[in-house]
Amino acid sequence: MIQMTKSKEESLLEYYQTNSINPCIIPVEDEKVWEDHRIKRQNLYRHLMIPLNYFRNKSILEFGCNSGENALYLASIGACLTLYEPNNQVIPRLKKIFTHFKLEQNITDIYNKDITSYSDDKRYNMVVAEGFLHTLKNRERMLLKIGNMLVPGGLAIISYDDKYGSMLEMIKILLLCRLCQIRNVALNSDHSLKLANDLFREDFKQLNASRSFKSWWEDNLVNSHSSFQAFWSFKEIINVITQANCSFYSSSPRWSNIDNYTWHKNVLTENERKQCLNDEWNNNFLFFLTGLQPKGGINIAPTQTVISAVEDLIKMISENCFSRQGNIGMIQYPEELERYMMKTNNPDVMLLNQSLKSLFKTIHTNDCETIINHYHSLRDLRKMWGTSLHYICFSKPI
Known about the structure:
The chain is of the alpha/beta class. The protein is 46% helix and 12% strand.
């Protein structure tokens, strides 16, 4: 059984340490696994428009490197690494895999510390913080801090769970929580893992995931840090990046066309770029929710009422599924979202909308088999995962 968060003050790190969880262990010692991981990391940097030869002999500072599988790839293409990892449980594996690949010489230093304890004046060509920054209470201050760690012309890469792209995954949490409630078992129990297997394993197999189903269950479905408070959004982040006197460079998934179809001599100010990016974000809102590419290159921008309805839904799920006093019965499919999705005239979106409506009705029944069978019948919904994980790369002006 997974030990649930003891209090609202317990951090994501403490959750991992208490339960001896390595959130994304990748057995790179296996040649086929390493090749698969290498190709995926290459593709990430292609999405972020960073040439691979950029990394050679560059000083790179990575916070929260976990057991080092991603850092290992950077070392393999010539990066010089300074690694900060607060979880002492994963550092032995980090050292082991670098030794296995004979890349120890690419590590300048390893510190068993977190980003808040960093106080060095050294500046780096690149700073990386994947998978945790959004969970910190002082995340805005830490993002500003990262901007100050860069040399002029340096790049920073962060990843975060997107506030709106996580909607479909939060609905999966709601579904699992409801089954656990009917069976009178804890969300973090072995019985919950079995129910999750019954519900989602076949769908999970279709993902090109790097981790196991059990790791996904531990880190996403029953981890109370996968909650509304831990989600972040592009609009919030771009405000902090601007305050750090840095500029948006790229993202994954790639959705911005800000520099496409324009002449290089038509230079936008930083404020103009920020406004254009925010407008593009609005136009891609449906993609963030569903993962569906725009048909015909057009998407309908949501009103603030629709955006707020999605926020309220995710907040209701996180507050009621991760609380012993939670009331799942009060969670309803938002009418504002239903109307918005029907206005798109996109057949895939409209079908998804009908599936979500019917699923929410079924969730309020009291029979597990009925709920499971109905979910399994919704093939359009089952193949959609939204866009929960986002990367942003930003640059320090020269």
